[in-house]
Structures are given as structure tokens and as C-alpha cells.
Amino acid sequence: MDYLFFVFLSSGLFLGWSLGANDAANIFGTAVGTKMVRFRTAAIIASVFVIIGAVFAGGGASKTLTELGAVNTLAGAFMCAFAAAVTVYWMVSSSIPVSTSQSIVGAIIGWNCYSSKPTDYGILSEIVSTWILCPLLSGIIAICLYGLTRIWLKHAKIHLLRLDCHTRIGLILTGAFGAYALGANNIGNVMGVFVDANPLQSISWHGFSLSATQLLFLIGALAISIGIFTRSHQIMRTIGKKIMVMSPIVAWIVVVSQSIVLFMFASQGLEQFLQNHNLPALPLVPVSSSQAVIGAVMGIGIAKGGRNIRWDILGKISIGWITTPVISAMLCFISLFFLENVFNQTVFLPD
Fold first, then answer.
1. Whole-structure pTM value
2. Which of 338, 287, 271, 351 is nearest to 79 (CA)?
3. pLDDT tens-digit series, residues 254-290
4. At 209, which helix (H) or strand (E)?
5. What is the dihedral sign for C-alpha 169, 174, 179, 183?
6. How many angstroms separate the CA atoms of 168 and 220, rounded?
7. How many other C-beta atoms lie within 10 A of the C-beta of residue 326?
8. Residues 284 and 63 sit within 8 Å (Cβ to Cβ)
């Protein structure tokens, strides 16, 4: 196999690392921030289930990105992933939890503009709508769960030590589910631009087989895991402590809410079930766990009267969400020019 593939893939691995440092941390940020789960325990569980979700359920959401822009050369895919990764890394270094989904979408649009390929505005509007729908849904689910949990705790009268034990177990189980949903939903952000130019071959071993795309997703998921272990602790503190002070029960509600939302936007089975029963289905789109977590935190904060929310930090995060796709698109466009004209690489193939 051409070694250049792995050279070009390095930007996708960098993006995966950035996603692990930023988005993947959100599934256990509230648990670690409230000291209910140790960081090392959270990182191990998150890594294992991110890989499982990416390899075995990552195909649905990634398809939408390829419909937005079919990057048809490895050099072009390299630069899309690189521009997205640099944008995310810059935001992470500033302790701003941003959307990797927004970053890669911006990069793909930058590639479309440079290569004069048409952007499917129907797909784009579908993706952009999820940037609003994702935190909104997460907030609504969190408000409902918060109200139900308060009623249950009021009547259950569970001993404090038993409640603490149940909460820790609940955070671990829901964190594992959240990691699975994150891998299924967000692996498209990391490796989606490489799918059309993927030279890998499927493998089979004693009845166990992985397709070429699954193998690509496995490589990306490993990069996400490394990002979780090496750089996610800082973002966990931002999510877990700085936006709003949370009790362990509230932390559990936040994890459950964002996990459900990520699963809803990644599950092909759920989409098919809703369509078979003539019900409106959510689009299979990579969404941001950062937006889902912050939406859930906001929902609970509003349910409490909004007194404990750090609006200044939320304002900073919101600015990051707005500027992320713009920065990524501009960086990708400019970088493609240099890659093609200075390094003589083919960044797109004409129709």
C-alpha cells in the first residue's frame, strides 16, 4: 500500500486526537468535574466504547458528510481534516469547547469552493439545523429528567450513601453509552473525508471481518482515544465546573441527556423505525457533544431559575461556535492553494 496514504491520513489522526481532547471529554466531564468518577477510569471506559461505536455504528452519520462534499483525492482529504484539526486545537488551547462537526463542515465547504464543486445546500441546511436542534433537544430532555428525578427522590427516600453509590454506577453506565453514541456519531467528522479515497482493503480473521471503511474508522477511533488520555482533562473541568456548579445527580442527568441526543442523530435503526411508522425522523448527522452537554447544562440551569449559570463563559463558547466553521473554511481554502501550487499535489479531480 502506498505509504503516502498514511502521510495524508495524519491530519485525520490529528483531528481525531483533537476530538478526543475536546468532544469526547464531554461524556465524562460532569462526572469528573464533580469528582464522582476518576479521570483515568473515565478515560479508559470512554476509549473502549468510542472504538466500539465508531467501528460498528459509524456509517450512518458519516454518509451525510460525503453527500455535502465528496472529497475525491487523498491530498484534498488531508487538507480538509488538517484545517478542521487546527481550528479545533486552537479553540481547545483557549479552553473553549467547540464543535468538531462545525469545523469539518466548514473545511468541506472550503474544499467545495476551491474545487468549484457545488455545495448541496439542502444537506447543508439539514446539518446547520442540527446545530440548533442538538442543544435544544438536550436541554428539553434534561429539564424533563430533572423534574422526574426530583419527584422520584422526594418519594423514594433513599439513604445518602446508597444514593451516592447508585449515582456513581449510573454515571459510569451512561458514560459508556455516551461514548458509544459519540463514536457512532462523530467518527464521520474524523474519517468521513477519507472514505471516498480510502485505499484500505477489508480484513477477515477466524470469522471476524472488518470492511475497509470499518478499518478506517478503527484507526480514527484509536486517535480519539489517545486524545482522551492526553489532553481532555482541561476541557472536562470547563464543562464539569465552570459553566455551572453541579451536584452528582445533576451531572448524571447531563450525561444521560447528551447521550440520548447523540444516539438519536446516529442510529440507523431508530431512523428506519420512525420512517416505517410514518413518523418524522432526525437526520443522521454528526453533531457536537459539546453542544449537547452545554444544552443540557443550560436546561437544568433554566429549570433552577438561571441563578448558577456562568453567562460570561457561555458567551465565550457561543462566539467559538459561530467563528469555528468560518475559520476552518478559510484556512482550508488558503491551505489547498499552497498544497496544489507549492507542493504540486492534486487536491481535487474534475468531474
1. 0.85
2. 338
3. 889 989 999 999 888 888 888 888 888 888 888 888 7
4. strand 208-210
5. positive
6. 29
7. 14
8. yes
